[in-house]
Each structure stands twice: as C-alpha cells, then as structure tokens.
Amino acid sequence: MAEAVKMDGPPVSGEAAKTPEKITLEGAYVTVEPLDPARHGESLWKDMGGPENAELWRYMHSGPFESREAFDAYLAAKATSRDPLYFTVIDRAANRPGGHATYLRIDPGQRVVEVGSIVFTHAFQRTRAATEAMYLMAKHAFEDLGYRRYEWKCNVLNEASQRAAQRLGFSFEGVFRQHMIVKGRSRDTAWYAMLDYEWPARRKEFERWLAPDNFDEQGRQKTRLRHK
To answer: 150-179 burial string, b = 16+ CB within 10 Å, else e?
Structure first.
C-alpha cells in the first residue's frame, strides 16, 4: 500500500492579508504618515543629510548624501514606491520628522511583511516616540491588515539594529550568509520575526511601557521594555 502523504504544520486559512496603503497612524508621541518630500524634505535633510549624518546610512542600501540635490532625488523616488512603502515618523513633541521607516517585501498571499529601511535621526533615536512608531506599525500590520508574520532583517554587523529587534519583541531566527551585496560589500543578514499569535502579549507589553506613568517628570523610563 502507498504511504499516506504527510502534511507539515497546522492548517491555515487561505484568506490573503491586505496590502499596506498610504495612511496615517496616530499615537500619543508620534505620527506615522506617508513620506511627502514637499512637507518633510527640508527637515529630513537637516537631520539626515550632509557629512555630519553619514553614519546614519552606514548599513543602508542608499546614502549617505553629501548634496541636497541627491537627497531630494532619493526622497522623490521613495515617495512613489509601493514596495517598499515609505512613511515619515513625526515626533509630536518636537513637531518635526524623526526619520523614515517602511513596509517592504510585502506578500499578502502568504501574509508576510517586513518592517525596514529604518533611518531615525540622532535626536529621535532611543525616544518614546521611536518605540511608539514601531508599535503602531506592528499593530497596523497584525490587527488592521491581517499579517501572520512580521519580519525584521539587518546586516549582522549592525549590532544596534539587532539589539533594537530583540528589545521590540522580535525573535532571532538565524543568519543568511552572503545574502546580498550592499555598496560593493558582501552582507550576511540576521533574520528576526514576530508572529501573529505572539502579538497580543507583545502589544500588552508595549502599552504598559508606553503608558505615561512609566516615565518620570524628566521623561526617563521607570521600567524597561521587556518581551518574554
């Protein structure tokens, strides 16, 4: 008799996720809105362009940008892209852009999407607003769009990005060796992911950490963000 065919993994609904659109996500400390060079370009150039900000682009596919003309061309191209889909993160307290982030490698059929192309200004890094921006994008992906896998990938040499992924609740899954060539150099890529069934606990911890009573009068956290 022929052996029964073994099926791997539990059954999954075949319903596709929604494709991310250019929408605005409002938080207490940050607004995540579609990248608009006309509205955001001047501020982004001051805080992300020029030789003084070259380090921000060290592990990115693009940049650094020494001229405003090159930076404007970069923003114009990214503003029309659908995958990656670019958003500007606005620090509400400072009333100025804190950088950009994207949804990319969007696969509605498999219900998999990645968050990436994250470049935050020096002033925006390690702030409540920066953490809230990542919370809002994850929440939108899982709860509004219906994705089951939310990915984070970075150069294995980018220790800051790996620490950020772990702090934000992504699980390390391994390293893809010689995954790509970036700026003429071979890149090994660290893979992280968060899954839909993990999200409720991640959301609860994000909201606990982001609550006003977790910060003192100087805006310093009382407890750290800790995902189990």
So the answer is: bbbbbbbebeebbebbeebbbeeeeeeeeb
Give me the residues paired with residue 194 across strands: 150
The domain 25-214 is placed in CATH, from the list 3.30.300.230, 3.90.870.40, 3.40.630.30, 3.40.50.2000, at 3.40.630.30
pTM of the model: 0.94
Please give the C-alpha separations between residue 137 and each of 78, 100, 102, 159, 207, in angstroms, as whole numbers: 18, 12, 9, 22, 14
pLDDT at residue 10 in the model = 82
Is residue 210 within 8 A of residue 131, CB to CB? The reply is: yes
The proportion of the chain whose per-residue pLDDT surpasses 90, expressed as a percent, equals 92
Instruction: Give the span between the Cα atoms of 128 and 219, in whole angstroms.
Output: 9
Task: With beta carbons less than 8 A apart as the criterion, state whether 30 and 89 touch.
Answer: yes
